[in-house]
Amino acid sequence: MIADALKMAVGTLTTVRVPPPGVIDRRVAGGAMVLAPLAVVPLAAVASLIVFLGESAGLPAFASAALALGAVALGSRGLHLDGLADTADGLGASYDRARALEVMRRGDSGPTGIATLVLTLLVQTGALAGAISAGHGIAAAAAAVIAGRGVLSLCCTRGVPSARPEGLGATVAGSVPVWTAAAVFAVLAGAAALVLPWWQGLAAVALGYLAAAALLARCVQRLGGVTGDVLGGCVEVAVAGVLLALSF
Question: Which domain holds residue 187?
Answer without folding.
Answer: 34-245
